Amino acid sequence: MTNKAKKRKAATVFAIPMACLFASSIPIAAEEPNYDFSYEMYGPVTVMIDAGHGGIDSGAIGANGVYEKDLSLQYAQTIGAMIQSLDPSISVLYTRYDDQVPWVDEQNTLDFEVDDLNGRTNAIMTMAPTYVLSVHFNAADDPSASGFCGFVKGEDASSQAVYSKVSQYFQEMGYSYDRGLMTTMDYPLQIVDMNMSSSMLLELGFLTNYFEVSQLSDPSMMNALCMQIARAYVDTIHGV
Known about the structure:
By secondary structure, the chain is of the alpha/beta class.
């Protein structure tokens, strides 16, 4: 795993008042790849995308200086936009749409990590989406560590199917390698475990690996990876 605090452990969920949750009309600056996929309108399905970290929590810091919180937000918004470009009948929500985490009083919190996790979990439970995707990036002391991986509930066949497609599509485009899909029976994760949705935390690569973080930060590669993740969700939803 990783040496950084990744918000793995479960914590008690408090009823924290939530700020507005944001629909997927957020403009995405990056140009979408010109893929030609045709889907029938499906609905009603909702995918809620959680961009990891934010606010005073930068997450991992990449070998090129990029903050995980910023990269996860870019990926989350791009994935959401691409899901809707493939099937506009699928609703997309986000836990955050900028660097703010309004469910945490950053000036007065006694434990930012607990309050942050509780706020995100409360948002997911309130909205009760069909799918939850929490976007993260990994880090390690070993700068050669690389690869992507995922975490799901052991009984969550839908998220397991999504991950299988993500792995297939990533490998088809020659991106990194699959470190495997793990279950929260071995690695408890509040953001995955404490809701009734099909939920997955996806670690897209190692920011501490200079080659990998350079790939992940490249706009063209970002768009390509996000399209494969969007395809994986839409294909799973459509039973492809």
